[in-house]
Amino acid sequence: MIQATSGCTYNKCKFCSLYHGECFRMTPINEFEEDLAEIKSHQPHARRLFWTGANPFAMSYENLKERALTVRDYLIKCQSIAMFSSIRDIKPKSVEQLRKLRAMGINGLSIGMESGDDETLAFVNKGYTATDIVEQLAKLDEAGIEYYLVYMTGLAGKGNGQRNALNTSETLNQISPYFVENPYFLNIDSLTLFPDTELYKMAQHGEFTPADEKERLEELITLLQNLRLRTRVQADTISNFKPLTGFFPKEKKEIIGKLQHIINTSSEKEMRSYRDSLKSLGAD
Ligand code: SF4
Q: Can you give the residue ranges of the Radical SAM core domain (predicted)?
């Protein structure tokens, strides 16, 4: 891991407070080189790097290129440079530039898509539409860049999960149906409201009603029932009541069966108190 940027270029998503009060900053190239030299002293044969920061891929093509080529000066065996990105960060880059970045080793973008439903995206202020998702991911497919997507259950609020799931599956089915590589993972999170977010304040003022826990699982079942992707579904972060993973569509029936089993055997109260106990989205 190496710090490429800090903070988020956007900072406007209503459910997020991760980088509040922190300005976006690119690590100056001399600091970046010092860190690479240190990594080299411990791991001279490192093959994979992860650039930290909310969205290092927001850097311009030129800045990404400079840093990716600098990695080669220190870690000659490094084959893959992964990082977080937003759909917004792909937009200014052409397919040709993306292809070149891929050739320089940039591969494995973790994208917090959260939803593919226009109403939900606009409500939480993600700054892009379902059409943007389809268009920008198609560019990554064309350039051969591997990516991982996040979907967040409960984000649309009580009574809206089914609409969110159906429209998201429709969006995702357009990106690369049964494409062998992408999205490499579909990560599932579930909305957890923290006091310093706008959505929490809206909930306090009765302007947003969080979805029930069982409703969220039903939302996920609908998403999976309608999805035509070849990917790995990973609902194993702390925001999920019970961890669950599986290959899709191969294990579709098993995954949906497990979700139904959780709905049938766990009480809403038990699931609610689990969510209320979460103080952060860290691993523990
Ligand atoms: S969810 Fe991601 S893009 Fe949105 S404010 Fe938080 S870090 Fe920034």
A: 1-230
What is the pLDDT at residue 86?
Answer: 98
- The structure tokens listed for 193 are 């409201």
Task: Tell which atom from ligand 1 comes closest to the C-alpha of 17.
Answer: 6
Q: How far is the CA of 58 from the centre of ligand 1 (A)?
A: 12
Distance CA 32, CA 98 (A): 22
Domains and CATH numbers, the chain: 2-276 (3.20.20.70)
Ligand 1 atom closest to the Cα of residue 126 is 4
* pLDDT confidence bin for 181, thresholds 50/70/90: confident
Dihedral sign, Cα of residue 131, residue 119, residue 233, residue 46:
positive
Cα 10 to averaged position of ligand 1 atoms, centre (Å): 6
Measured CA to CA in angstroms, residue 203 lies from 89, 193, 196, 247 at distances of 30, 9, 12, 35
Please identify which residue in the block is written with the tokens 């959505």. Answer: 199
Rounded CA-CA distance 220/244 in Å is 12
Show Cβ contacts of residue 228 under 8 Å, excluding neighbours closer than 6 positions: 169, 173, 177, 178, 249
The answer, yes or no, to whether any atom of ligand 1 lies below 6 A from the CB of 113, is no
